[in-house]
UniProtKB/TrEMBL annotation:
Native source species: Nothobranchius kadleci
PANTHER family: REVERSE TRANSCRIPTASE DOMAIN-CONTAINING PROTEIN
Protein name listed in UniProt: Uncharacterized protein
Domain of life: Eukaryota
Length: 193
C-alpha cells in the first residue's frame, strides 16, 4: 500500500493544529501546552504507525518534521538549533524509533498470546537443528522476501528482524509491563546515545 498520501495528510492536519497551538502557547503553562501537543500532534503521529514500519526515513520525513516543529514550539527553540537534544529532554522518541517500539511491542504480545492471531501466525520461533547456546534465546525466523521494498516492510519480515536485534534479557522479559519499560529504555538509548 502507498502510505505517502496518508503521511502527507497527517502532516498537513498536524501543522494546521500546531499553528493554532503556537498562537495560544504564550498564555499556557508548559504542562498544558504539552498536553495539547499530545492531544493534537503526537496522537496523530502514533495512531496506527506500526503500519509504516520498514519504510525509508525519507517516506516518514513529514511526520518527523511535524514532531520536530511541535518540540520547537513547546520548548521555544530556534530552527537553527539541533533538535535531537530537545526531543531527548522531552523524552519524545523520534518517529522511526516510535514505529519500531510499536512493532516490537506487538511482536512480544504475539509471542505471549496477547496479540491478534492473524499476526501471531506470521511469527515462527527459530529452532536450531542441534543444541546450541542460542536455543533458549527466543530468536525468530526471518523469512526470505521476494520484493525488496514491500517485503522488508511487512510485519512478517520487519518484526522478527527487529526482535532478533534485541538483547537476550529483553526478549526474555516475563510480562508485557516489564518488557515495555525495558524496551522504552533500550530504544531511548539507541535514539539518543
Amino acid at each position: 500500500a502507498d502510505f505517502i498520501p496518508h503521511i502527507k495528510n497527517i502532516t498537513k492536519i498536524g501543522l494546521y493544529h500546531l499553528k493554532n497551538i503556537a498562537r495560544v502557547c504564550p498564555i499556557l503553562s508548559r504542562a498544558n501546552a504539552e498536553t495539547l501537543m499530545h492531544a493534537f500532534i503526537t496522537s496523530r503521529i502514533d495512531y496506527c504507525n506500526a503500519l509504516l514500519s520498514g519504510l525509508p526515513k525519507k517516506s516518514i520525513s513529514g511526520l518527523q518534521l511535524l514532531q520536530n516543529s511541535a518540540a520547537r514550539v513547546l520548548m521555544k527553540t530556534r530552527k537553527r538549533e539541533h533538535i535531537t537534544p530537545v526531543l531527548g529532554s522531552l523524552h519524545w522518541l523520534p518517529v522511526c524509533f516510535r514505529i519500531d517500539f510499536k512493532v516490537l511491542l506487538m511482536v512480544f504480545k504475539c509471542l505471549n498470546g496477547l496479540g491478534p492471531s492473524y499476526l501471531s501466525e506470521l511469527l515462527l520461533l527459530y529452532k536450531p537443528s542441534r543444541s546450541l547456546r542460542s536455543s533458549g534465546s527466543r530468536l525468530l525466523v526471518i523469512p526470505k522476501v521476494r520484493t525488496h521494498i514491500h517485503g522488508k516492510a511487512s510485519f512478517q519480515y520487519y518484526g522478527p528482524h527487529l526482535w532478533n536485534e534485541l538483547p537476550g534479557d529483553l526478549r526474555a522479559a516475563e510480562n508485557v509491563h516489564v518488557f515495555r519499560n525495558r524496551l522504552k529504555t533500550h530504544v531511548f538509548s539507541l535514539a539518543f546515545n
